[in-house]
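[09:14] KT: can someone run the structure on this one? pasting the chain below
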Amino acid sequence: MLQRLPITFWATVFVTLVCVSLVGLDFWRSWNARTVLLEQTERSATNLARAMSQHADDTIKSADTSLNDLEERIETDGMGPGQLARLHRVMQDQVRALPQLDGLYAYDADGRWIVNSLATFDPRANNADREYFRFHREHRDEGPHIGLPVVSRSSGKWVIPVSRRIDRADGSFGGVVLATIDIDYFRRFYASFDIGVHGAVALLSNQGTMLVRRPFRAQGIGASIVDTPLYRAYAHSATTGIGMFRSTQDGELRLNSYRPLQHYPLFVTAALSKEEALAHWRRDALLHSLGVLLLAGLLALFGQRLIGQMRRRLEVERELREARDALAGLNATLEKMALQDGLTGLANRRQLDVSLTNEFSRAVRQGSSLALALIDVDHFKRFNDRYGHGAGDECLRAVSRAIRQQTPKRPGDLAARYGGEELAILLPNTDSAGAHAVAERMRDAVEALQVAHEDSPLGIVTISAGVAALVPRRGQDSAGMLLEAADRALYAAKLAGRNRVEAALPDQPPAH
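[09:31] RB: done, structure tokens below
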């Protein structure tokens, strides 16, 4: 079976496979490059989150170390005037040494200032209403407490409070030591990272409170993100992770890497925009794909031309064989020419009669079905009256060409001019359904010509067709019965409104 396929088929298969392979390989390369780029973005986000986590941990650790020292001094040395003066100097030295600190403060059990790192001291100041103060008053936790971001009453800046409890000798609540970390310190550090135009980094509490974020928005400080996909993912694992989440703040889809701090109940997230990360890849993939498609198109074009040349060569060889065969049957050819209608180029009535008789006899011998379709141009007399006989002849030629193009090219199939504007199609080995389908294609083809006919209800030239088919029985049926049945079906099509195909009962002889 494979050996019988023509060489043009295999050439077409080869060119198609080459073109499809080029496009497929380019798609695979582009998709693989996209995967690699996203993996690199994940690594960048992970490394960035690691650096942010270490920085935040070190920053808070330094502040906490200062607090631990202050707590021990106060609990050990007391709060006499000399001790407070020395604490004041120590606090100022610590603030100057640690750029992240906005200030250091100590409060008594009632929330009054007892000493701080400021140059001036307001004895009326009281911070008993602050969250961190209430926390230490109600909890005996000896570790540091990181409170919610607040605006400092001393400097007017946004700060993150880190505090420790002061215990009296009997273990009762004695006050609070506080270090305030300037949020601008984190903002400056985060501004040093190249996160693109739409990237974002943030420092958050384990309870889902926003402490610092870039891009910075003052109204975002202290906001809760507990209802976001990012926080749900972090809360579920409480460890390092990565995921693709859409921001609830600006709607940007980002690849987020989140990581908890080692010593404190905080976590950081580094988020890089997916669209931004893939922007260069998209441009490269588009240009590369256009180049590959152009190359594949050129290859397909040249392949098509080559295959066309091969087909023409095979066609010439076939024509030469046909010419050789035609010389042997010249008399038959001349006879056939004599049986052609001069106006339409279809077979004439005489050839139709001869072919119908021959095919009828063959159908009787073989017990096969024979079909006939009679076609009439709708309102043709009105067409001639309005447009003239010259236009009528041209209309018949156009209709005949359309019908000839739709006539099957099997041996025995015949399109003929039956008379006037009537045409006949002879279809051996065809049942009623097959003849109906052929006639319907012819009707569609004529309608598609859109030949203007103002005196037709549809405004264009159309045809009506009647088809009939039978399996002729020897001694009982005749070719005339088939013609009669097709004619009745044509008449039914006209009565039903024209521009349609009607069929006699399939494979049944007409009524006598």
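[09:33] KT: thanks! The chain is about 50% helix and 20% strand.
[09:34] RB: yep, looked fine to me
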